[in-house]
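User: structure tokens for this one?
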Amino acid sequence: MFDTVLVANRGEIALRVIRTLRRLGVRSVAVFSDADADAPHVREADVAVRLGPADRSDSSAAETYLRTDQILAAARRTGAQAVHPGYGFLAENAGFARACADAGLVFIGPPPGAVELMGDKINAKEAVRTAGVPVVPGSQATAPTDEDLVAAADGIGYPVLLKPSAGGGGKGMRLVRDPAELPTEIAAARRVARTAFGDDTLLLERWIDRPRHIEVQVLADAHGTTVHLGERECSLQRRHQKLIEEAPSVLLNAETRAAMGAAAVRAAESCGYTGAGTVEFIVPGIDPDAPASAAEGVRDFFFMEMNTRLQVEHPVTELAVAVGPDSARLDLVEWQLRVAAGEPLSFTQSDISFLGHAIEARICAEDPERDFLPTGGRILTLDEPQGEGIRVDSGVAPGTVITSAYDPMLAKVIAYGPDRPTALRRLRAALADTRILGVTTNTGFLRRLLAHPEVVAGRLDTGLVEQTAQQQPALLVAPYSPSSAAASSAAAPNAAESSTTAAAADASASEPPSPAHLLYYAAALARHLDLTPAADPGGWTDPFSLPSGWRLGGTPAWTTHRLRTPGQDPVSVRIRSITAGNVTETTDNSPERTREVELRLDAGPVHRARATLAADRLHLTVDGLQTAFTLATDATPGLPAGPVTWLGIEGDAWPMHAYDPVVESTAGASAHHGALTAPMPGTVTVVKTTAGETVRKGQPLLVLEAMKMEHVIAAPHDGVVAELRATAGATVAMEDLLVVVTPAEEAAEVAEVRS
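Assistant:
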């Protein structure tokens, strides 16, 4: 075994590898960019080395985690004997593997030749075809031109799938159903492939109807033994990016499982593979109307690709696979190290079996309510779930700043159970207990996806998420989301003041508020409670400084809190104390702040409520129903609307901004309605227009890329590019102004005046 190993990665995978190294008594070396200087993997390692230019700060992957020379220098400097690449970055780079060998370092992965062969999707298909592994019909040329790809599509029929030959992880893949769209999609796929992998070679495959993505974990030593560790189902995807993975697959019968496992072993042996790897297959789904006999015998399956590295979803295999008579569990990172150190596998295929069921959910910095655009920010609150059968692989901590420079995945939550229903229940509960405030994530979305009737029944396919979003969106929408709130008519300015006690009582007797209204109530009450000044050293507070709305000889006045959440119209929440007794109660120096109030959202009914703030939890009781929200405040100096209130519940979280109608109207008057801002933080990769150019509605103006996602900014109407602030290669923040397109009518008027 090695004495010192350098981990050439970041985030949760670096942390996961470092912990195995520590358990084995191996000294760990981390590498980091300036952006990751205080990251958990840096703090956990025994030694850490900075990556990046010596004369400036540049945390881009190209200047840090993709710099072979700097990583090798860090290994030499720290006396590392081996390098673990994790996944992503240089993990599947044959040149990096060779450079490690040339430097006298052991690359903890397969031989460079295997990485190179399986990294070329075209040659990999031919290699496994020769080994007797079934492959998906598609293009045959090793470097097909655009014309070759069009001809191949015409030959096999539509729909077809475009894939970068050198890529993986779904990046750059394009599903094309219309022949007229193929040339445009080829150009886009080549651009992404060239940027991401340095190689714009594409391949084209037949699209399988109701496809299920099922992969097989393989493990091979350098002594001629190769085994498979069963399959993982990865069919729940969005834009070819995996969301949920589980083992075993509910689709496979024993005969198909054995056949796929044997095919995976042949694929690994065809390239002289050693270490841990994954062979991915596409499996046609079962037609719901097909007879029961259709599920019998060996099902069709086709080779897609081989990932010559550890997979993100490897924990489900570690939890669900048992080895030997004592049902021992495997640590795949440990076996990567042992194989790389020359040790033989201590078990054979007959020792391996499934025991129980495991499911993993990937938590990413993205916003499901904004078409999963990448997000960012500073993590204010982080509570990770615990409990029986729960494992969390995380790479973040409170205070971590999430940028667009790296992959959006923050953590993985994995649940194990003796059967699939138990694992599903545990994972849904764990996601509800996952609290991340300060950065919008997909945690709540994943929880709702796991409750989808088709998911519970095991009727999965790679298009289920998109299909549900289009046909049954209510299944995936957060009940507390502001977008779920029914808009109510705006109240007259003095409506609250003129309402009588009887009217308020009648309104309070109406139907209970919706969950989305409760979110607004909670945000307003959190801000309302913050208005209470701190008690003096004697424990007394001046009652006239309290936000009680107390008035001599009358009912308390309403205090109005105007709130806005991104993408939604602003709302007004009015709050007033129920009794004057609350004024005296609040002078007590209690660690918990409690108010009994009346609430009114816009022109809606009045509800009686009780709110208690204890630490970072706000307990809100409205009409007898108590709801607990996690609360955090982003008080970063310079925020346009002041401190931002974050509220979280059941895995979801939303930012609530103060809304000033005067400031907003002034800003709105000065903003041009043809101004296009960045919908996400990212990098401008392509600029397709120039200032002064006449453009048509829908014409692409520039391309913004962040966290494996490419977003096209198009002209909102016919007009002229009046202002262009974006430049290729520039990094932009969310809502930064990129380009202004003056409508054609206004542009013509301006031109006429000038003439």
